[in-house]
Amino acid sequence: MQLLLEIGQAATFDGLVHGTDGVLTLPEGADLVLATKDGATESGLPAAVLAFTVQLPDGRTARARTVLTVRLLIMTLVALRGRYGPDGKGAN
C-alpha cells in the first residue's frame, strides 16, 4: 500500500474533493492520499481529504473520499494513539 501526503497542497485537495469531471482519481500508484488545504472551510479552518481505494465484496475496486477538518483528524489520531500506542500495536 502506498500512502501519499500532500500537506497544504490546495490543488491536490481541490482535485480530490471535486474530482475530474466528477470522477475521483488518485495519483498514479497511490492507494491512500491525505491532502490538506488551509482556510478550506466556510469559517476559514484548514480541512483534510482522505481519498482511498477500497475492494468491494464482489472483488471490484472503487475509490472513496471523506472530507473533515484538520482539527477533527488530529483528535481522531490522538484517540487512536491512546488506544493503540505510538507503535500501533495495541494499548500499553
Quick summary of this structure?
The protein is an alpha+beta fold and 92 residues long. It has helices at 10-18, 70-84; strands spanning 3-6, 32-37, 47-55, 61-69. It has a 4-stranded mixed beta sheet with strand order 1-2-3-4.
Explain this structure to me?
The protein is an alpha+beta fold and about 90 residues long. Strand 1 (about 5), helix 1 (about 10-20) and strand 2 (about 30-35) form a beta-alpha-beta unit. It has helices spanning about 10-20, 70-85; strands spanning about 5, 30-35, 45-55, 60-70. The protein has two helices and four strands. It starts with a strand and ends in an 8-residue tail after the last helix. Helices cover about 25% and strands about 30% of the residues. The model has no long low-confidence stretch (mean pLDDT about 90). Strands 1-2-3-4 form a four-stranded mixed beta sheet.
